[in-house]
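Backbone geometry:

***
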Amino acid sequence: MADAAIARAPAGRVRPGQPVPVSYPSLPALLFQQARQRADRPMLRYWRDGAWQRLRWAAFAHGAAAVAAWLRAQGVMPGDRVLIVSESRPEFPIADTAIMAIGAVTVPTYTTNTVADHAHILRDSGARVAVVSTPALARKVAEAAAQAEGLDLLLGMDPPPGLPGIRTHGWAEAVATPCDGAALEQETHRIAPGQLACLVYTSGTGGAPRGVMLPHRAMLANREGVARITEQLHLEGEAYLSFLPLSHAYEHTVGFLLPTLGVEVVYSRGADRLASEFREIRPAIVTAVPRVFELLRGRLLAQREKLSPIRRTLFDRAVTLGLRRMDGPKLGPLARIEDAVLDRLVRRAVRERFGGRLVAMVSGGARLDPDLAGFFLALGLPVLQGYGQTEAGPVVSVNPPWDIRRETVGPPLEGVTVRIAPDGELLLRGDLVMDGYWGQPGATAAALRPSEDDPDGPVWLHTGDVGTIEDGYIRITDRKRDIIKTLGGDMVSPARLEGLLMAEPEIAQAVVAGDGQAGISALLVPAEDMAEKVEATVQRVNRRLSGIERIRHWAVVPPFTLEEGLLTPTQKVKRRAVLAHHAATLEALRR
Protein backbone atom coordinates (compact mmCIF):
# COMPACT_ATOMS: atom_id res chain seq x y z
CA MET A 1 0.00 0.00 0.00
CA ALA A 2 1.39 3.38 -1.00
CA ASP A 3 2.16 5.93 1.72
CA ALA A 4 -0.33 8.36 0.13
CA ALA A 5 -3.12 5.87 0.75
CA ILE A 6 -3.09 6.29 4.52
CA ALA A 7 -3.36 9.36 6.72
CA ARG A 8 -3.52 10.07 10.40
CA ALA A 9 -4.17 13.21 12.36
CA PRO A 10 -1.21 15.48 13.08
CA ALA A 11 0.93 14.48 16.04
CA GLY A 12 0.03 16.04 19.36
CA ARG A 13 -0.08 14.70 22.87
CA VAL A 14 -0.84 11.23 21.53
CA ARG A 15 0.73 9.20 18.78
CA PRO A 16 -1.04 9.64 15.43
CA GLY A 17 -3.70 7.04 14.79
CA GLN A 18 -3.71 5.84 18.40
CA PRO A 19 -6.77 6.19 20.67
CA VAL A 20 -7.03 9.63 22.23
CA PRO A 21 -6.92 9.30 26.03
CA VAL A 22 -10.11 10.48 27.71
CA SER A 23 -10.59 11.41 31.35
CA TYR A 24 -14.19 10.24 31.71
CA PRO A 25 -15.72 6.81 31.29
CA SER A 26 -19.10 8.10 30.13
CA LEU A 27 -20.74 11.17 28.64
CA PRO A 28 -22.95 11.88 31.71
CA ALA A 29 -19.88 11.61 33.97
CA LEU A 30 -18.25 14.36 31.91
CA LEU A 31 -21.41 16.50 31.91
CA PHE A 32 -22.00 16.27 35.68
CA GLN A 33 -18.36 17.07 36.39
CA GLN A 34 -18.56 20.10 34.09
CA ALA A 35 -21.74 21.20 35.88
CA ARG A 36 -19.88 21.25 39.21
CA GLN A 37 -17.04 23.31 37.74
CA ARG A 38 -19.25 25.71 35.75
CA ALA A 39 -22.32 25.79 38.00
CA ASP A 40 -23.27 29.43 37.42
CA ARG A 41 -22.07 29.61 33.82
CA PRO A 42 -24.62 29.50 30.96
CA MET A 43 -24.76 26.18 29.12
CA LEU A 44 -27.65 26.72 26.69
CA ARG A 45 -29.66 29.60 25.28
CA TYR A 46 -33.12 29.12 23.78
CA TRP A 47 -36.13 31.18 22.71
CA ARG A 48 -39.23 30.97 24.86
CA ASP A 49 -42.03 33.34 25.86
CA GLY A 50 -40.87 35.96 23.37
CA ALA A 51 -37.30 36.27 24.66
CA TRP A 52 -33.97 34.48 24.87
CA GLN A 53 -33.68 32.34 27.99
CA ARG A 54 -30.56 30.75 29.51
CA LEU A 55 -30.09 27.37 31.12
CA ARG A 56 -27.14 27.37 33.52
CA TRP A 57 -25.05 24.32 34.22
CA ALA A 58 -26.30 23.85 37.78
CA ALA A 59 -29.94 23.89 36.67
CA PHE A 60 -29.12 21.46 33.86
CA ALA A 61 -27.47 19.00 36.26
CA HIS A 62 -30.30 19.21 38.79
CA GLY A 63 -32.90 18.65 36.06
CA ALA A 64 -31.02 15.64 34.68
CA ALA A 65 -30.68 14.11 38.17
CA ALA A 66 -34.37 14.65 38.91
CA VAL A 67 -35.52 13.14 35.61
CA ALA A 68 -33.14 10.21 36.14
CA ALA A 69 -34.71 9.58 39.55
CA TRP A 70 -38.19 9.81 38.02
CA LEU A 71 -37.32 7.34 35.25
CA ARG A 72 -36.03 4.87 37.82
CA ALA A 73 -39.18 5.28 39.88
CA GLN A 74 -41.18 4.42 36.76
CA GLY A 75 -39.23 1.18 36.34
CA VAL A 76 -36.73 2.15 33.62
CA MET A 77 -33.73 -0.16 33.92
CA PRO A 78 -30.15 -0.17 32.57
CA GLY A 79 -30.18 -1.22 28.93
CA ASP A 80 -33.77 -0.10 28.32
CA ARG A 81 -34.23 1.97 25.19
CA VAL A 82 -35.97 5.33 25.56
CA LEU A 83 -37.25 7.24 22.54
CA ILE A 84 -36.82 11.04 22.42
CA VAL A 85 -38.97 12.95 19.93
CA SER A 86 -38.38 16.66 20.31
CA GLU A 87 -37.26 19.88 18.72
CA SER A 88 -34.04 21.48 19.96
CA ARG A 89 -34.96 22.73 23.43
CA PRO A 90 -33.31 22.39 26.85
CA GLU A 91 -35.51 19.48 27.93
CA PHE A 92 -33.89 17.35 25.19
CA PRO A 93 -30.32 17.28 26.58
CA ILE A 94 -31.67 17.06 30.14
CA ALA A 95 -33.68 13.94 29.26
CA ASP A 96 -30.85 12.56 27.14
CA THR A 97 -28.38 12.87 30.03
CA ALA A 98 -30.84 11.43 32.53
CA ILE A 99 -31.45 8.37 30.37
CA MET A 100 -27.74 7.66 29.89
CA ALA A 101 -26.94 8.37 33.55
CA ILE A 102 -29.04 5.42 34.73
CA GLY A 103 -27.51 3.13 32.11
CA ALA A 104 -30.45 3.24 29.72
CA VAL A 105 -30.09 3.91 25.99
CA THR A 106 -31.25 7.05 24.21
CA VAL A 107 -33.04 6.70 20.87
CA PRO A 108 -33.22 10.22 19.36
CA THR A 109 -35.66 10.51 16.46
CA TYR A 110 -36.82 13.22 14.07
CA THR A 111 -39.97 15.20 14.75
CA THR A 112 -40.64 14.96 11.00
CA ASN A 113 -40.83 11.16 11.03
CA THR A 114 -44.02 9.62 9.76
CA VAL A 115 -46.16 7.36 11.93
CA ALA A 116 -44.72 4.40 10.00
CA ASP A 117 -41.16 5.59 10.73
CA HIS A 118 -41.87 5.84 14.45
CA ALA A 119 -43.57 2.44 14.43
CA HIS A 120 -40.53 0.85 12.78
CA ILE A 121 -38.13 2.41 15.29
CA LEU A 122 -40.30 1.43 18.26
CA ARG A 123 -40.59 -2.10 16.96
CA ASP A 124 -36.93 -2.44 16.02
CA SER A 125 -35.43 -0.86 19.14
CA GLY A 126 -37.90 -2.38 21.56
CA ALA A 127 -38.35 0.98 23.27
CA ARG A 128 -41.21 0.97 25.75
CA VAL A 129 -40.69 4.51 27.01
CA ALA A 130 -40.82 7.79 25.08
CA VAL A 131 -40.01 11.40 25.96
CA VAL A 132 -41.96 13.67 23.62
CA SER A 133 -42.14 17.46 23.34
CA THR A 134 -45.60 18.51 22.10
CA PRO A 135 -49.10 17.03 22.36
CA ALA A 136 -49.25 16.69 18.55
CA LEU A 137 -46.07 14.62 18.52
CA ALA A 138 -47.33 12.59 21.48
CA ARG A 139 -50.43 11.64 19.49
CA LYS A 140 -48.30 10.68 16.48
CA VAL A 141 -46.04 8.48 18.64
CA ALA A 142 -49.11 6.92 20.27
CA GLU A 143 -50.51 6.09 16.83
CA ALA A 144 -47.20 4.46 15.95
CA ALA A 145 -47.19 2.59 19.25
CA ALA A 146 -50.60 1.12 18.43
CA GLN A 147 -49.00 -0.44 15.33
CA ALA A 148 -45.81 -1.52 17.08
CA GLU A 149 -47.53 -2.67 20.28
CA GLY A 150 -44.62 -1.64 22.44
CA LEU A 151 -45.02 1.65 24.30
CA ASP A 152 -46.01 1.69 27.98
CA LEU A 153 -44.88 5.09 29.27
CA LEU A 154 -44.74 8.60 27.79
CA LEU A 155 -43.23 11.72 29.38
CA GLY A 156 -44.43 14.95 27.80
CA MET A 157 -42.23 18.06 27.89
CA ASP A 158 -45.42 20.00 27.30
CA PRO A 159 -48.52 18.66 29.10
CA PRO A 160 -49.37 15.51 27.12
CA PRO A 161 -52.87 14.44 26.12
CA GLY A 162 -54.46 11.35 27.58
CA LEU A 163 -53.38 8.39 25.45
CA PRO A 164 -55.30 5.09 25.64
CA GLY A 165 -53.16 2.25 26.96
CA ILE A 166 -50.12 4.45 27.69
CA ARG A 167 -49.19 5.96 31.05
CA THR A 168 -48.64 9.68 30.44
CA HIS A 169 -46.89 12.14 32.72
CA GLY A 170 -45.83 15.77 32.51
CA TRP A 171 -42.36 17.29 32.66
CA ALA A 172 -43.12 19.31 35.81
CA GLU A 173 -43.72 16.09 37.73
CA ALA A 174 -40.43 14.57 36.55
CA VAL A 175 -38.19 17.56 37.34
CA ALA A 176 -39.78 17.88 40.81
CA THR A 177 -38.66 14.35 41.77
CA PRO A 178 -36.36 14.29 44.85
CA CYS A 179 -32.85 13.30 43.81
CA ASP A 180 -29.25 12.95 44.97
CA GLY A 181 -27.13 14.51 42.24
CA ALA A 182 -23.80 13.72 43.91
CA ALA A 183 -24.64 10.03 44.22
CA LEU A 184 -25.80 9.89 40.61
CA GLU A 185 -22.57 11.50 39.45
CA GLN A 186 -20.60 8.82 41.27
CA GLU A 187 -22.68 6.16 39.51
CA THR A 188 -21.90 7.64 36.11
CA HIS A 189 -18.20 7.06 36.72
CA ARG A 190 -18.96 3.34 36.93
CA ILE A 191 -20.45 3.27 33.41
CA ALA A 192 -17.97 1.55 31.13
CA PRO A 193 -16.75 3.52 28.08
CA GLY A 194 -17.83 0.65 25.85
CA GLN A 195 -21.38 0.59 27.20
CA LEU A 196 -24.09 1.46 24.69
CA ALA A 197 -25.12 5.12 25.03
CA CYS A 198 -27.54 5.68 22.16
CA LEU A 199 -29.15 4.19 19.08
CA VAL A 200 -29.23 6.64 16.20
CA TYR A 201 -31.34 5.46 13.28
CA THR A 202 -30.06 5.96 9.77
CA SER A 203 -31.38 4.68 6.44
CA GLY A 204 -30.10 1.36 5.16
CA THR A 205 -29.84 0.15 1.59
CA GLY A 206 -33.21 -1.56 1.87
CA GLY A 207 -34.88 1.64 2.98
CA ALA A 208 -35.72 0.66 6.56
CA PRO A 209 -33.76 2.79 9.08
CA ARG A 210 -31.05 0.90 10.97
CA GLY A 211 -30.06 1.57 14.58
CA VAL A 212 -26.41 2.60 14.81
CA MET A 213 -25.02 1.51 18.19
CA LEU A 214 -22.82 4.28 19.58
CA PRO A 215 -21.06 3.58 22.89
CA HIS A 216 -19.92 6.34 25.22
CA ARG A 217 -16.33 6.04 23.99
CA ALA A 218 -17.39 7.02 20.45
CA MET A 219 -18.76 10.42 21.48
CA LEU A 220 -16.01 11.00 24.02
CA ALA A 221 -13.39 10.27 21.37
CA ASN A 222 -15.12 12.80 19.12
CA ARG A 223 -14.94 15.37 21.93
CA GLU A 224 -11.24 14.87 22.43
CA GLY A 225 -10.55 15.06 18.71
CA VAL A 226 -12.55 18.27 18.35
CA ALA A 227 -10.93 19.72 21.48
CA ARG A 228 -7.51 19.57 19.81
CA ILE A 229 -8.84 22.06 17.26
CA THR A 230 -10.96 24.29 19.50
CA GLU A 231 -8.09 24.71 21.98
CA GLN A 232 -6.27 26.72 19.32
CA LEU A 233 -9.31 28.93 18.64
CA HIS A 234 -9.74 30.21 22.22
CA LEU A 235 -13.52 29.71 22.25
CA GLU A 236 -14.12 29.88 26.01
CA GLY A 237 -17.22 32.02 26.57
CA GLU A 238 -18.12 32.24 22.87
CA ALA A 239 -21.47 31.20 21.36
CA TYR A 240 -22.30 28.33 19.02
CA LEU A 241 -25.46 28.79 16.94
CA SER A 242 -27.07 25.36 16.73
CA PHE A 243 -29.21 24.94 13.64
CA LEU A 244 -29.45 21.18 13.04
CA PRO A 245 -32.02 19.17 15.04
CA LEU A 246 -30.66 17.34 18.08
CA SER A 247 -31.89 14.06 16.59
CA HIS A 248 -29.28 14.51 13.83
CA ALA A 249 -26.22 12.41 14.70
CA TYR A 250 -23.87 15.35 14.24
CA GLU A 251 -25.84 17.72 16.45
CA HIS A 252 -26.56 15.00 18.99
CA THR A 253 -22.82 14.64 19.59
CA VAL A 254 -21.61 18.20 19.01
CA GLY A 255 -24.42 19.69 21.07
CA PHE A 256 -22.95 17.83 24.02
CA LEU A 257 -19.31 18.43 23.09
CA LEU A 258 -19.08 22.20 22.78
CA PRO A 259 -20.64 23.18 26.13
CA THR A 260 -18.01 21.04 27.88
CA LEU A 261 -15.35 23.08 26.06
CA GLY A 262 -16.66 26.38 27.42
CA VAL A 263 -18.90 27.29 24.49
CA GLU A 264 -22.53 28.34 25.03
CA VAL A 265 -24.92 26.53 22.68
CA VAL A 266 -27.75 28.67 21.28
CA TYR A 267 -30.69 26.88 19.67
CA SER A 268 -31.73 28.64 16.47
CA ARG A 269 -35.40 29.38 15.84
CA GLY A 270 -35.10 28.20 12.23
CA ALA A 271 -33.78 29.12 8.79
CA ASP A 272 -36.09 32.11 8.47
CA ARG A 273 -34.54 33.67 11.60
CA LEU A 274 -30.87 32.95 10.88
CA ALA A 275 -30.06 36.38 9.46
CA SER A 276 -31.31 38.20 12.54
CA GLU A 277 -29.82 35.59 14.89
CA PHE A 278 -26.33 36.13 13.49
CA ARG A 279 -26.56 39.76 14.55
CA GLU A 280 -28.25 39.00 17.90
CA ILE A 281 -26.10 36.08 19.00
CA ARG A 282 -22.79 37.01 17.32
CA PRO A 283 -21.70 33.37 17.25
CA ALA A 284 -18.13 32.16 16.90
CA ILE A 285 -19.22 28.82 15.43
CA VAL A 286 -22.13 27.74 13.25
CA THR A 287 -22.76 24.30 11.81
CA ALA A 288 -25.25 23.61 9.05
CA VAL A 289 -25.89 21.50 5.98
CA PRO A 290 -25.00 22.82 2.50
CA ARG A 291 -28.60 23.79 1.80
CA VAL A 292 -28.39 26.48 4.49
CA PHE A 293 -25.28 27.93 2.87
CA GLU A 294 -27.12 28.01 -0.45
CA LEU A 295 -29.88 30.05 1.21
CA LEU A 296 -27.38 32.41 2.83
CA ARG A 297 -25.61 32.98 -0.48
CA GLY A 298 -28.96 33.70 -2.11
CA ARG A 299 -29.72 36.34 0.50
CA LEU A 300 -26.32 37.99 0.07
CA LEU A 301 -26.78 38.10 -3.69
CA ALA A 302 -30.29 39.51 -3.27
CA GLN A 303 -28.85 42.26 -1.07
CA ARG A 304 -26.15 42.87 -3.68
CA GLU A 305 -28.87 43.68 -6.22
CA LYS A 306 -30.10 46.50 -4.00
CA LEU A 307 -26.69 48.18 -3.92
CA SER A 308 -25.73 51.17 -6.03
CA PRO A 309 -23.79 50.32 -9.22
CA ILE A 310 -20.50 51.42 -7.65
CA ARG A 311 -20.98 49.37 -4.48
CA ARG A 312 -22.10 46.38 -6.57
CA THR A 313 -18.87 46.62 -8.54
CA LEU A 314 -16.85 46.73 -5.31
CA PHE A 315 -18.70 43.64 -4.01
CA ASP A 316 -17.94 41.70 -7.20
CA ARG A 317 -14.33 42.81 -7.17
CA ALA A 318 -13.95 41.63 -3.55
CA VAL A 319 -15.18 38.19 -4.58
CA THR A 320 -12.89 38.08 -7.62
CA LEU A 321 -9.75 39.09 -5.73
CA GLY A 322 -10.61 36.85 -2.79
CA LEU A 323 -10.79 33.84 -5.09
CA ARG A 324 -7.52 34.85 -6.78
CA ARG A 325 -5.84 35.10 -3.41
CA MET A 326 -6.87 31.50 -2.69
CA ASP A 327 -6.52 29.91 -6.11
CA GLY A 328 -4.07 32.10 -8.02
CA PRO A 329 -2.64 33.64 -9.99
CA LYS A 330 -0.73 35.37 -7.21
CA LEU A 331 -1.79 38.93 -6.49
CA GLY A 332 0.65 41.62 -7.53
CA PRO A 333 1.56 44.62 -5.32
CA LEU A 334 -1.27 46.85 -6.61
CA ALA A 335 -3.82 44.03 -6.41
CA ARG A 336 -2.78 43.33 -2.80
CA ILE A 337 -3.38 46.97 -1.89
CA GLU A 338 -6.76 46.89 -3.67
CA ASP A 339 -7.66 43.67 -1.86
CA ALA A 340 -6.81 45.22 1.51
CA VAL A 341 -8.99 48.26 0.74
CA LEU A 342 -11.87 46.00 -0.31
CA ASP A 343 -11.48 44.10 2.95
CA ARG A 344 -12.35 47.32 4.80
CA LEU A 345 -15.02 48.51 2.39
CA VAL A 346 -16.82 45.23 1.61
CA ARG A 347 -15.74 42.20 3.61
CA ARG A 348 -15.87 43.92 6.99
CA ALA A 349 -19.53 44.85 6.38
CA VAL A 350 -20.32 41.27 5.30
CA ARG A 351 -18.64 39.87 8.41
CA GLU A 352 -20.66 42.23 10.58
CA ARG A 353 -23.87 40.94 9.00
CA PHE A 354 -22.85 37.56 10.40
CA GLY A 355 -22.11 38.93 13.85
CA GLY A 356 -18.47 39.84 13.36
CA ARG A 357 -17.07 37.08 15.60
CA LEU A 358 -17.15 33.99 13.37
CA VAL A 359 -14.15 31.71 13.41
CA ALA A 360 -15.80 28.74 11.71
CA MET A 361 -18.96 28.07 9.70
CA VAL A 362 -18.82 24.30 9.42
CA SER A 363 -20.69 22.48 6.67
CA GLY A 364 -21.46 18.81 7.11
CA GLY A 365 -24.04 16.16 6.32
CA ALA A 366 -23.55 16.33 2.54
CA ARG A 367 -21.01 17.48 -0.04
CA LEU A 368 -20.36 21.22 -0.05
CA ASP A 369 -19.78 22.60 -3.55
CA PRO A 370 -16.25 24.10 -3.58
CA ASP A 371 -17.58 27.08 -5.55
CA LEU A 372 -20.15 27.74 -2.82
CA ALA A 373 -17.45 27.57 -0.14
CA GLY A 374 -15.22 29.79 -2.28
CA PHE A 375 -17.89 32.50 -2.47
CA PHE A 376 -17.99 32.83 1.32
CA LEU A 377 -14.24 32.52 1.80
CA ALA A 378 -13.66 35.24 -0.80
CA LEU A 379 -15.90 37.52 1.30
CA GLY A 380 -13.95 36.79 4.47
CA LEU A 381 -16.37 34.28 6.00
CA PRO A 382 -14.63 31.11 7.29
CA VAL A 383 -16.80 28.43 5.67
CA LEU A 384 -15.16 25.03 5.93
CA GLN A 385 -16.20 21.49 5.23
CA GLY A 386 -16.10 18.49 7.51
CA TYR A 387 -16.94 14.84 7.04
CA GLY A 388 -18.61 12.26 9.18
CA GLN A 389 -20.94 9.32 9.43
CA THR A 390 -23.47 8.30 12.02
CA GLU A 391 -21.46 5.09 12.27
CA ALA A 392 -18.39 7.07 13.37
CA GLY A 393 -19.46 9.12 16.31
CA PRO A 394 -20.11 10.93 13.83
CA VAL A 395 -17.22 13.41 13.26
CA VAL A 396 -14.35 11.98 11.21
CA SER A 397 -12.54 15.00 9.78
CA VAL A 398 -12.76 18.76 9.42
CA ASN A 399 -10.82 21.54 7.74
CA PRO A 400 -8.95 23.58 10.37
CA PRO A 401 -9.92 27.27 10.11
CA TRP A 402 -6.26 28.25 9.76
CA ASP A 403 -5.68 25.96 6.72
CA ILE A 404 -8.90 25.52 4.75
CA ARG A 405 -8.70 23.48 1.56
CA ARG A 406 -12.19 23.72 0.19
CA GLU A 407 -11.88 20.84 -2.28
CA THR A 408 -11.44 18.51 0.68
CA VAL A 409 -13.18 17.54 3.92
CA GLY A 410 -10.01 18.18 5.91
CA PRO A 411 -7.63 15.92 7.82
CA PRO A 412 -8.96 13.26 10.21
CA LEU A 413 -9.42 14.15 13.85
CA GLU A 414 -6.69 13.13 16.22
CA GLY A 415 -7.16 9.49 17.20
CA VAL A 416 -8.70 8.59 13.82
CA THR A 417 -6.86 6.52 11.23
CA VAL A 418 -8.11 6.50 7.63
CA ARG A 419 -6.95 4.67 4.54
CA ILE A 420 -8.02 4.04 0.98
CA ALA A 421 -8.85 0.47 -0.03
CA PRO A 422 -7.72 -0.91 -3.39
CA ASP A 423 -11.18 -0.25 -4.83
CA GLY A 424 -11.01 3.39 -3.71
CA GLU A 425 -13.31 3.09 -0.69
CA LEU A 426 -12.50 5.20 2.38
CA LEU A 427 -11.91 3.05 5.47
CA LEU A 428 -11.44 4.25 9.02
CA ARG A 429 -10.87 3.04 12.55
CA GLY A 430 -10.58 4.45 16.05
CA ASP A 431 -12.58 4.70 19.25
CA LEU A 432 -15.21 6.75 17.43
CA VAL A 433 -16.44 3.76 15.40
CA MET A 434 -19.82 2.23 16.24
CA ASP A 435 -20.31 -1.20 17.75
CA GLY A 436 -22.56 -2.20 14.85
CA TYR A 437 -26.19 -2.09 13.76
CA TRP A 438 -28.81 -2.99 16.34
CA GLY A 439 -30.09 -6.53 15.76
CA GLN A 440 -28.41 -6.79 12.34
CA PRO A 441 -25.29 -8.95 12.57
CA GLY A 442 -25.13 -9.34 8.79
CA ALA A 443 -25.12 -5.60 8.14
CA THR A 444 -22.61 -5.14 10.98
CA ALA A 445 -20.25 -7.72 9.50
CA ALA A 446 -20.48 -6.00 6.10
CA ALA A 447 -19.64 -2.59 7.56
CA LEU A 448 -16.99 -3.60 10.10
CA ARG A 449 -14.46 -5.92 8.52
CA PRO A 450 -10.81 -6.19 7.54
CA SER A 451 -9.70 -4.49 4.35
CA GLU A 452 -9.67 -6.59 1.19
CA ASP A 453 -5.88 -6.46 0.83
CA ASP A 454 -5.33 -7.52 4.46
CA PRO A 455 -8.05 -10.03 5.40
CA ASP A 456 -6.30 -11.01 8.64
CA GLY A 457 -5.66 -7.41 9.71
CA PRO A 458 -7.62 -5.01 11.92
CA VAL A 459 -11.30 -4.35 11.43
CA TRP A 460 -12.13 -1.11 9.62
CA LEU A 461 -15.37 0.78 9.13
CA HIS A 462 -16.18 0.60 5.43
CA THR A 463 -17.74 3.99 4.79
CA GLY A 464 -19.23 3.38 1.35
CA ASP A 465 -17.55 6.60 0.15
CA VAL A 466 -14.86 6.68 -2.49
CA GLY A 467 -12.04 9.14 -2.08
CA THR A 468 -8.37 10.01 -1.99
CA ILE A 469 -5.93 11.31 0.60
CA GLU A 470 -3.61 14.12 -0.41
CA ASP A 471 -1.13 15.69 1.99
CA GLY A 472 -3.14 14.30 4.90
CA TYR A 473 -6.42 15.84 3.67
CA ILE A 474 -9.35 13.64 2.67
CA ARG A 475 -11.13 14.26 -0.61
CA ILE A 476 -14.47 12.49 -1.21
CA THR A 477 -15.01 11.84 -4.91
CA ASP A 478 -18.00 9.50 -5.12
CA ARG A 479 -20.38 7.27 -3.24
CA LYS A 480 -19.91 3.54 -3.45
CA ARG A 481 -23.35 2.70 -2.16
CA ASP A 482 -26.63 3.80 -3.60
CA ILE A 483 -27.97 5.99 -0.81
CA ILE A 484 -29.06 9.50 -1.75
CA LYS A 485 -27.71 12.23 0.53
CA THR A 486 -29.67 15.42 -0.14
CA LEU A 487 -28.33 18.96 0.12
CA GLY A 488 -29.89 19.10 3.57
CA GLY A 489 -27.82 16.12 4.70
CA ASP A 490 -30.78 13.72 4.89
CA MET A 491 -30.24 10.11 3.88
CA VAL A 492 -32.86 8.70 1.51
CA SER A 493 -33.07 5.20 0.09
CA PRO A 494 -33.75 5.30 -3.66
CA ALA A 495 -34.68 1.61 -3.62
CA ARG A 496 -37.50 2.30 -1.17
CA LEU A 497 -38.92 5.20 -3.18
CA GLU A 498 -38.60 3.41 -6.50
CA GLY A 499 -40.27 0.35 -5.01
CA LEU A 500 -43.23 2.38 -3.73
CA LEU A 501 -43.63 4.15 -7.08
CA MET A 502 -43.49 0.96 -9.13
CA ALA A 503 -45.92 -0.73 -6.76
CA GLU A 504 -48.56 1.61 -8.18
CA PRO A 505 -50.33 0.23 -11.27
CA GLU A 506 -49.86 3.51 -13.15
CA ILE A 507 -46.03 3.38 -13.08
CA ALA A 508 -43.98 0.73 -14.88
CA GLN A 509 -40.44 1.97 -14.13
CA ALA A 510 -38.98 4.60 -11.82
CA VAL A 511 -35.60 6.02 -10.95
CA VAL A 512 -35.18 8.76 -8.36
CA ALA A 513 -32.32 11.23 -7.95
CA GLY A 514 -31.32 13.89 -5.47
CA ASP A 515 -27.75 13.34 -4.28
CA GLY A 516 -26.45 16.76 -3.32
CA GLN A 517 -29.74 18.41 -4.35
CA ALA A 518 -32.38 20.23 -2.35
CA GLY A 519 -35.06 17.60 -2.96
CA ILE A 520 -35.91 14.33 -4.68
CA SER A 521 -36.62 14.15 -8.41
CA ALA A 522 -38.05 11.18 -10.28
CA LEU A 523 -37.85 9.81 -13.81
CA LEU A 524 -41.08 7.90 -14.40
CA VAL A 525 -42.14 5.49 -17.15
CA PRO A 526 -45.94 5.20 -17.06
CA ALA A 527 -47.75 1.94 -17.59
CA GLU A 528 -49.60 1.63 -20.88
CA ASP A 529 -52.24 4.34 -21.33
CA MET A 530 -51.53 5.70 -17.84
CA ALA A 531 -49.48 8.82 -18.62
CA GLU A 532 -52.28 11.19 -17.62
CA LYS A 533 -52.56 9.57 -14.19
CA VAL A 534 -48.89 9.91 -13.20
CA GLU A 535 -49.32 13.20 -11.33
CA ALA A 536 -52.14 11.88 -9.17
CA THR A 537 -50.09 8.74 -8.51
CA VAL A 538 -47.05 10.72 -7.34
CA GLN A 539 -49.25 12.77 -5.02
CA ARG A 540 -50.74 9.57 -3.62
CA VAL A 541 -47.30 8.09 -2.95
CA ASN A 542 -46.07 11.36 -1.41
CA ARG A 543 -48.79 11.20 1.21
CA ARG A 544 -47.14 8.03 2.53
CA LEU A 545 -43.65 9.52 2.68
CA SER A 546 -41.82 11.69 5.17
CA GLY A 547 -41.00 15.26 4.17
CA ILE A 548 -37.41 14.50 3.15
CA GLU A 549 -38.49 11.59 0.94
CA ARG A 550 -41.27 13.26 -1.02
CA ILE A 551 -40.93 13.58 -4.78
CA ARG A 552 -40.53 17.31 -5.49
CA HIS A 553 -40.17 17.13 -9.27
CA TRP A 554 -40.79 14.45 -11.85
CA ALA A 555 -40.72 13.85 -15.57
CA VAL A 556 -42.34 11.23 -17.76
CA VAL A 557 -39.66 9.56 -19.90
CA PRO A 558 -39.54 6.72 -22.47
CA PRO A 559 -39.10 3.14 -21.21
CA PHE A 560 -35.66 2.06 -20.04
CA THR A 561 -34.46 -0.66 -22.43
CA LEU A 562 -31.70 -3.21 -22.74
CA GLU A 563 -30.80 -1.83 -26.16
CA GLU A 564 -30.01 1.60 -24.69
CA GLY A 565 -27.87 0.03 -21.98
CA LEU A 566 -30.31 1.04 -19.26
CA LEU A 567 -31.21 -2.49 -18.15
CA THR A 568 -29.17 -5.50 -17.10
CA PRO A 569 -29.69 -8.84 -18.86
CA THR A 570 -32.01 -9.76 -16.02
CA GLN A 571 -34.09 -6.61 -16.68
CA LYS A 572 -32.87 -4.71 -13.64
CA VAL A 573 -32.61 -0.95 -14.07
CA LYS A 574 -29.08 0.45 -14.13
CA ARG A 575 -29.58 3.51 -11.95
CA ARG A 576 -26.34 5.29 -12.80
CA ALA A 577 -26.81 4.69 -16.50
CA VAL A 578 -30.37 6.04 -16.38
CA LEU A 579 -29.28 9.12 -14.45
CA ALA A 580 -26.50 9.81 -16.95
CA HIS A 581 -28.81 9.19 -19.92
CA HIS A 582 -31.41 11.65 -18.59
CA ALA A 583 -28.98 14.17 -17.08
CA ALA A 584 -30.41 17.04 -19.14
CA THR A 585 -33.96 16.21 -18.05
CA LEU A 586 -32.95 16.12 -14.40
CA GLU A 587 -31.12 19.42 -14.72
CA ALA A 588 -34.22 21.02 -16.25
CA LEU A 589 -36.36 19.70 -13.36
CA ARG A 590 -34.11 21.36 -10.79
CA ARG A 591 -34.35 24.82 -12.32
Observations:
- The chain has 19 helices and 27 strands.
